[in-house]
Prior knowledge:
This protein is mainly alpha-helical. It is about 85% helix and about 0% strand. The protein contains five helices and no strands. Helix 2 runs antiparallel to helix 5 and helix 3 (about 65-80) runs antiparallel to helix 4 (about 90-115). The N and C termini lie far apart (about 50 Å). The relative contact order is 0.14.
Amino acid sequence: MRIRVRLLTVATATATATALLLTGCSSTPAEELEDWWSSGGDSSVKALSDTSGRVNEVSMRPMDDWTPACQELLSQVAKAKKLDTIPSENARGFWTESLTLFEHGGNECVAGAGEKDRPRASTGIREVQKGVGRLASAVSLIRGDLEPK
């Protein structure tokens, strides 16, 4: 009988170890979001906020100043798109929408300014401004998800 108990214990330990290896160490959604935030999410949000703010600022200047700011924003959008998908279901829609608005608005700004088409460039800047609001909403939800419950 003693042998059976040991075999059963070894079999149970083996099954448990196999299950852990197959499932891995699971993380909570908050831990996954914290990892995303500390692995580039935070710096990407700051860069997008800074560059979209610059686009808004240069919109009060001559149109020749618009292109560099809009190109810089497009560069930051490209970097943000390389991040893993944001693990916050709450913030994901606002994050994605902000990137879309920044990209489309930035492209319209660059194209319009390059063609000296002020209405087109201005439309692009207005899209960037909408993106600022979506980014702020995403950040608010991210911070809420990161707060200890």
